[in-house]
Design brief:
184 residues, single chain, 9 helices, mainly alpha, flat
């Protein structure tokens, strides 16, 4: 009986200890998650580069989007400097596809493309099939350049219309109030 009482005490102590540990773990995780979500902490370039490699290899679009979310030039530069050469062309192609499918993202993703070209220029210049690999990017740039004169023309027309409207509003400005009771 003494042994069973002792076993019950140990079991109760173990249960309480386990519950305290679970409670502490949850508190630590919750405070850690709150700290991560409330701060703009940037992961180390090594871990971002590893995430980038994993995203490209597994074709994990969610993970890739998480990495491409970072836009600070220093972060992008350090991350891409750690990117293995075998992943450079696939990353360029993936970013090109993203810009092609949603052109409004061009501004934010151009940061990544530009830095890839700067960081890995030696590799890109020495690659024998670079022209074929970058053909979609060339096509995308050509398409944007072809649209540029049309956009400039449209901008000029809009500015003329706005200027005309502004001048017509000034011409039609309300006159000074006139008294209806004989000018007194």
């Amino acid at each position: 009986t003494q042994r069973s009482v002792f076993s019950c005490i140990i079991a109760e102590f173990g249960k309480q200890w386990y519950q305290r540990r679970v409670r502490d773990f949850k508190r630590i995780n919750l405070s850690g998650m709150l700290a991560v979500s409330s701060s703009n902490a940037v992961p180390a370039p090594d871990s971002l580069a590893q995430m980038l490699v994993q995203a490209i290899t597994a074709q994990d679009h969610a993970l890739l989007e998480e990495v491409l979310h970072y836009k600070k030039p220093v972060t992008v530069e350090k991350t891409l400097s750690r990117l293995p050469l075998t992943h450079v062309i696939p990353l360029i192609q993936t970013i090109t596809e993203k810009i092609d499918s949603k052109p409004s993202r061009g501004g934010e993703l151009t940061i990544w493309l530009r830095q890839i070209m700067i960081t890995h220029r030696s590799y890109l210049l020495s690659s024998p099939d670079i022209a074929a690999n970058l053909q979609p990017l060339y096509r995308l740039i050509d398409m944007q350049l072809n649209n540029y004169p049309k956009l400039i023309k449209l901008q000029g027309k809009l500015e003329l219309l706005l200027q005309e409207r502004k001048s017509s509003e000034e011409d039609c400005s309300p006159l000074s109030p006139v008294s209806l009771d004989g000018g007194e």
